[in-house]
Amino acid sequence: MNDAAPAPKENMGQPYPRVDARLKVTGGAHYPADFAMNNLAYGYLATSPIARGEVKAVHTDEARAAPGVIDVVTYGDIGEAMARPKFGNSGATSVWPLHDKRIWHDGQIVALVVAEDFEAAREGAMRISADYEEQQPTASFDSPGAETIDAAGKSPMYKEDAKAGSFETAFAAAPVKIDAHYSTPTQHHNPIELFSTTAVWEGERLTVYEATQNVQGWRVNIAKQLKMDPENVRVMSPYIGGAFGSKGPMTPRTAIVAFAARRLGRPVRCVVQRDQAYTTQTYRAETRHHIRVGAGHDGRITAFSHEGWEVTSRPDNYVVGGASTTARMYGYGAVSTHVSLVKADRNTPGYMRSPPETPYVYALENAMDEMAVALGMDPVEFRRVNDTMVDPIEKKPFSSRSLMKCYDQASAAFGWKDRDPKIGSMRDGDWLVGMGCATAIYPTHTAPCAARVRLTDDGRVRVESASHEIGTGIRTVAGQMAAERLGMAMADVEVEMGDSSLPPAPVSGGSISTASVCSAVLKACDAIRDRLFRAVVTVNDGPFSGEDVSQLDLKDGKITGARGQSMEITDAFKATGAGALEEYAEFAPKGSSPKALKMLYQGEPEMHGGESGDKVMYAFGAEFVEVRVNSRTREVRVPRMVGAFAAGRIMNTRTARSQLMGGMIWGIGQALHEATEIDRRVARYVNRDLQDYLVPVNSDVQDVRVILVPEIDHDVNPAGVKGLGELGNVGTAAAVASAVYHATGKRIRDLPIRVEDLLT
Amino acid sequence: MHPFSYERPKSAAQAVSAASRHTLAGKAPPSSPAQFIAGGTNMTDYMKLGVMQPDRLIDINRMQDAGLDNIVVSDQGIRFGALVRMAEAEEHPAIKSRYPVIAESLQLAASGQIRNMASLSGNILQRTRCEYFREISWSCNKRRPGSGCAAMEGFNRQHAVLGGSEDCIATYHGDFAQSLIALDASVDILGPNGPRHLPFSRLHRRPGKTPEIETDLAPDELVVAIHVPALSWAKRSHYLKIRDRQSYAFALASAAVVLDLEGDTVRDARIALGGVATVPWRSKEAEDALRNRTLDETAAEEAAVAAFADARPSKHNAFKVELGRRTLVRALFETRDMKV
Which of A49, A672, A754 sits opposite B137 (nearest CB)? Predict the structure, then answer.
C-alpha cells in the first residue's frame, strides 16, 4: 500500500493494478488507429474557413493532381447511399456535411481526400478550395443574430426547470442576500489520442475501428446512416486514449470514411488533426449564470435562484442543464431555476466530463462562498447549516449523502483551522496565500447492461461486455468483481471489452460504467455460482453431497462448505464432467421500463438514478485548495489540494483515487488555464491546438491528496457503486476562485482566472 | 505536406551554396524555396501546418566544420556554435555561474524534449506563434503579404505591445534572444559572398510595412556562431518569465536583467523584455532610468514606466503593459537580491 494504492477502508475493494497498465506503457495496447491493415489508404479532411454561408462549388482538380491522391469525396458523391445523421445521445450533430450546402459552423467538412499515404492526403486536402456565399455569422452570447429559447423540454435529459415554493417572496424577505453573475468559457476535451476512423469492408460487412465510448450505439447509428443491417456492422474500440465525453456521440465523419472505403474497395483510415477536432467534434458549451441567494442571519438559506444560459448550434438543441443538480444541492427553502439556450453559428456542443455540474456547480459554489462572506460565516459551517438529507424540490430522501463527512475529513487533512479568514492576511514572502473550498457533486446513474462470464475447467475466468476502457480502469474493476464472486485470483481473470460483437453495455458516460457493468458481471457470476453449487451437491460421495447450496461459497479457487470442507474448482469440474460454465446476464436497474433491455440492444439505453427515482442519488465530495498569488506579477499557482469523496462502494482504491485526482487536476485547468477563444467577428476558434489551449502541465500540479470516505448505499444498484469518474473535477474551480478571493480580495466570477484579472 | 526534396551537406559552405542554387529573387527569406533545417522543432511544425512550404530542405545537422557544435567560454566571452542544442547550453557550468541570465532563459523555454532537439541558431530565428499566422486560412501580412492582419482587430491577447506596426503585431516569443540582446551579443554569418559579422540587435527586423521580412539574413545566409562578449558583472543577471502556467508556455511578459551594483546603487544595467514585443527588445530607456540611481521602488517603477512608454496595446493585450512593468520591477529586485 502507498499513496497510489490506498489501503481499502470499509466497503472498498483492493487496489489491484490496472490489468492493462503494462500494455499501455509499453506500447502493447492497440488503439483504433494502430491496427495494421493491408492495402490501407489514408484520408484527410478539408474543412470550411467560414462559419456561415452556402457552398457554391468545391474545386478538387488540384487535389486530385497531387502525387499519391487517389480519391476525393465531396458534394454529390454520396447521394442516396447515406441518411441524415441524427442528433442525440449517440449522434453529435444533425449537420450533414457533403450534403447540406449550408455551412452551419466554422470548420465544417467539405471534402475527404484519400491518398496512398498520410502526407499525400494532407497535401491534397490543402489544395482543396471552395467558393462560398458568405453570410455574417453569430459567434456567441450578445452577438447580433443570437436567438434565445427556453431549454426545458428541448432535451430528454432536461424536461423541466426545477422549482419549489415562491422564490421571489422568500428572497424579498431574506435579511442577507447576494445577486451575482458568473460565466464559463468554451472548452475542448483535447484527448491526447486524436480522433480517427478506420473503415474496413469485407463484402457487405463493415468493421469500423474508432475510439468510442459507445460501440453498441455507434453500431446501430452507423447502420442507420449507411442504410445497412446492424448485424453487418462491427465497431472496435479496444483502448481509448482519453475521451471525456468527446468520443460518446458519433460525428458525421465516421460514415463518410466508411463510404470512401466502400467506394475504393480498400480500407481507409482518417486521423483528424487536432485543430480540425475543434470544429468537427463536440465541446463544452460556453455558459452564463445569474444566481441569487437569500438567507437568515443564522445562515439558513431561504431562497435560491439559478438562471443559466448556454450556447448551442443553430440546428441542434444541446442542453447542459445543470440547474437540476444545483437545485438539489442544499436544503434551500424556495427554489427557482431557469435554463435558456442561445443559438449561434457554432458546431453543436456536447458532453464533457460532468457536463451539467462543471459549469453550474462552479457558479453555485462561488455564490456559496460569496454568501458565507456576506453572512460572516466560515464557508464550511455555512454548508453544514444548509446540509440536508431531503431533496428540496420533491422532498425525496437522498439514498445516502456523506457531504459533511467529506468536509470534515478534508478540512482536517488540509489544516483549514489554521486559515486566517481575513482577506490578504496570509503571506509567504512575495506570495499571497489563499485558501478556499467547495462542494463536489455528481448524480448516480445506472443503466441496463449485459455481460457474459465463463469459468473453465482450468480455473480461468473470462468476462465479456461491450463496455469501454476510457482510462477509468473498467477492465480491472469488472475483473475484480468476477474474481471476488467466483473466488478466483485476478491473474486468472481476463476481460474483453470495446467490441460491439460482445454483449452490449451502455455508453461509457455519465459515470455509469462501474455500477452498470459490475452489476451485470455480478449477476452472471451469481448464476455460475448457483449452477456450480447445484452440480456439486448432486455429486455422489463428494464433500458437498446433499448440502444446502446456500451454505456454499467460492474462495481462493475452492468451493467451501459450512462444515469447513472444500474442493478445488478444477476438481469440481472433473467431478461434474463439465468443461466450462458460461452465463449471459442481462441487468436492468430498478425502475427500468419493460423495453429497457430492448433499448440497450438498440444502443439507446435508459439511465436511472439521479433525481428520478423514489430516492435521489448523488455522490458527494469536498475540495480544499491553497493558492499562491505573486504580490507583483499576480500569476496564480496551486501548491496544495485536498479532496475527500464518498461514492458508495469503491471497487478499487487505486483506480478510484486516480480518477478523482485526475479530476482535481483538470479542475486546476478549468480554474486557471482552459478556454477556447473565439474570434467574434467571424465565429471561428482561434487557439486550436495544445500550444495555445493550455492545460496544466506537471509543474502546475504539486501536492494533490485524495481521501476516500467510506459509504454504504444499498439503494443505488446491486453493486452498491456510485460512479465517481466525473466527481473530482466538480467544485475544484470554485475552490480555486474562493482561494484567490481569500488571497487577493478579488472575486473573479468569469473563468478562467488569469493574470490580467488580478493586476488592477 | 507540400512535397520537398532533401539534402544533407557536409559543410556550411556546401549548405550555403545549396541554398543559393534554390533561391528565387524577390522572395522574402521565409518563403524562399530552400530552407535550412536543424532541430526542426519550428520548421517541421510549420511545414505540417502549411505555413512553410519549402521545395528543398537543407539539413544542416551533419555539417562538419569545426566549432559548430561546441561552446567555448573564455576571457573574451562565449562562442556558441550554431548547432549547439539548447539543453547543452543551459547545462554549461561556466554559463550557469558567469551568465545565469543565459542559462535561465534557455531553461525556461519550451520543454525538455524540445530543448534536446532545438539548435541555438534555430532558436534565435524562430518564427512567431501568432495564432493567425499559424492557421493558413486567416489573412496574415507576414505569411501572405498584403492579405491583411486578422490579429489586429481579432483575439490578440498574446500579441505585442512594443515594436508593432499597422501591418503586424505578432510577438517574438523567444527567451534566449532576450539574454543575447541584453548582453550585446553578435552573430557570425556565412553567405555566398563569404562570412560577415552582425550585432545581434540588428539581426531581427521590426515588421513595419514588410512583416514577411523578419531578419537581416538573405535566404542563403546561415548563422554559424553566436558570440557573447565578456562582461564581468553578468554573474548578477537573471531571467524572469511570467506565463499562464508554470512551465511549457510562452511568456506573457519576461525580463532579462543584468546589474552592475555598488551597494544598492546601479552603476550600469542591461535590460531586455520578452513576450511583449515584435522582436528581441532591448530597453535602453529603462537602463538609462536606472543608471547611478539607488535601486528602490521609485527607481524600479520609473525604469519600468520608461520601458513601456511607447507601448501601443490592442484590445486584449492591454494588460501586458502593466504586467510587463511589474515583471521588470520584480526582475530588478530579484537580480539585486542575488547572492553573487
Answer: A49
